[in-house]
């Protein structure tokens, strides 16, 4: 192989190596990444037990009863004072009338509040709306390179190519 052919081969290889460097920005412009799209439908089922208070209606009632007392000391038409006892749910009255003890029990109309634990079972079923999730690549932050640095970089590339060419020329061509 001729020395001139070797020099041409080295120069072509150097040009290929230097031109193959591509920045990430240029690569993303030429070959943009694909955007991944995911579709999902989400279902959520839940059963909730709740405590509740149920009103229980109790109708009112009145009961009167009496019993004879053998008592000779009392006059035949004797009537005593009435003894009355009251609670939240009933009223009791007692008195003596004509040798008899009479008792009256009054139960007014009442509504009781009864608490039942876990009485109401509520089932919830939610279907979320159609979600379209798009994943995008992270944005690339472009760094600013001053123009002076760009010019200096290309000047150094020129100097390196000149030195390599000069050394190659001295080694291969002038050595004959």
Can you characterise this structure?
With 176 residues, the protein is an alpha+beta fold. The protein has a domain at 1-33 and 147-176. It is built from three helices and eight strands, in the order ααββββββββα. The strands form three sheets. Strands 3-6-5-4 form a four-stranded antiparallel beta sheet, with no helix packed on it. A two-stranded antiparallel ribbon has the order 1-8. A two-stranded antiparallel ribbon has the order 2-7. It is rod-shaped, with a radius of gyration of 54 Å. Mean pLDDT is 76; it is low at 127-131.
Protein topology:
Elements: H1 3-19, H2 24-30, E1 36-40, E2 43-58, E3 61-68, E4 83-86, E5 91-96, E6 100-107, E7 110-127, E8 131-135, H3 147-173
Antiparallel strand pairs: 1-8, 2-7, 3-6, 4-5, 5-6
Helix pairs in contact: 1-3
């Amino acid at each position: 192989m001729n020395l001139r052919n070797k020099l041409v081969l080295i120069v072509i290889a150097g040009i290929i190596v230097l031109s193959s460097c591509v920045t990430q920005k240029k690569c993303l412009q030429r070959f943009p990444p694909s955007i991944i799209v995911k579709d999902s439908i989400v279902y959520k089922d839940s059963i909730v037990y709740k405590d509740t208070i149920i009103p229980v209606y109790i109708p009112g009632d009145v009961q009167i009863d009496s019993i004879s007392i053998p008592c000779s000391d009392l006059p035949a038409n004797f009537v005593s004072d009435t003894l009355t006892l009251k609670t939240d749910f009933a009223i009791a009255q007692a008195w003596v009338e004509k040798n008899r003890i009479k008792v009256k029990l009054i139960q007014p109309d009442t509504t009781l509040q009864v608490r039942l634990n876990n009485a109401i079972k509520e089932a919830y079923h939610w279907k979320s709306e159609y979600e379209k999730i798009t994943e995008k690549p992270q944005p690339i932050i472009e760094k600013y390179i001053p123009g002076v640095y760009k010019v200096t970089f290309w000047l150094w590339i020129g100097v390196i190519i000149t030195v390599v060419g000069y050394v190659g020329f001295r080694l291969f061509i002038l050595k004959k």
